Each structure stands twice: as structure tokens, then as C-alpha cells.
Amino acid sequence: MGITEFDKPLKGLNEKEEFSTLVNWALNKLPPFHSMDLRYKVIDELYQIVISKCEKGMRIGKPMLKTSVKGAIRYDWPEEVTYETLSVDIITASMLRADIINWAKKEGRLLTAQQLSQLADNEGPCDWDYEQPVENSQVKLVQTERNCWDVVLTEEERNLLGEFLEV
Known about the structure:
- It is a single chain.
- This protein has 2 domains: 10-126, no CATH class; 129-167, no CATH class.
- The chain is 32% helix and 22% strand.
- The chain has helices at 15-28, 88-107, 113-120, 155-166; strands spanning 35-42, 45-53, 58-60, 64-67, 133-136, 139-143, 149-152.
């Protein structure tokens, strides 16, 4: 099966052991009609594929580039998670925390454990200025509490859109 220590925490595994453990878990423990995301690194680029378990087989999705942030992490495992306690929900939550950490690295910020927890649990902003506009090729964007971007239109742009939609 490629795994010798089923009770070893995933947080303590190296990259190859982690990948082998997740592939093994997908083959042997992923419930039918469920899917999971699997991440892997190639140099400094982080890729992600979807593994879906059908009734009698599995489907593997096309590799998609997730991020090319230097030092990006694949997962942020809780301390107590092992092969035996792994689930799709734990994998998803671990990837969400990793995405938040990678986003913070890209923005040049360091997260405390409390900030990471607040962002992962959608408890609102963690003393960051989310109303800071970001210019992007003449489109003004404002970051929301859920780490999404809303487009901010000027009054003139709203009027132009309104006129266009009325035609």
C-alpha cells in the first residue's frame, strides 16, 4: 500500500510521503460518489487535480495551476490528523487554510494562528483593512471579508451601464 505508519500525523510527513498517503487514501478510503482535491508541487508552482470516485472506478481531472507563489504550501494539517482519521472535510479545510496562508505570503503579510482561524472560519476580518481599493487596469476592486473582490463603479460608470441595459 506504500504506507507503513498509519498513525503518523500528516503534519509530520514530507512532500512525497504526504502525496503517497493522500493517493492511497483516495484509492482505498474515499467514499463512492465523492471527490477530493489533490495538490502537488512542480518546482515553485502548485498544481491541483480533482479525484472523483464513481461506483466502479475513479476519474482524475486535468491538472490546474493553483499558484506560483514561492514557498506556497499544499495543505495546513491539524496536528492530530492521521491516515486513519482523514476525511474529505479535513482535506478541504486543510486546503482552505493553505490557500489563506499562500494568499498572505503573496500579499507580503504574516498571519497569526488567531488570524488564520478567523479567516478559515469566516468570522470576519482579522484587523486587516479590507476596504483598501486595488487598482487593476482601470477597474477598482475592493476586497470583502470573505476574501472575494467586489467591483466598485463610479456614478458615471453606473449611469453608462444603466443606459446600455435600458436599450
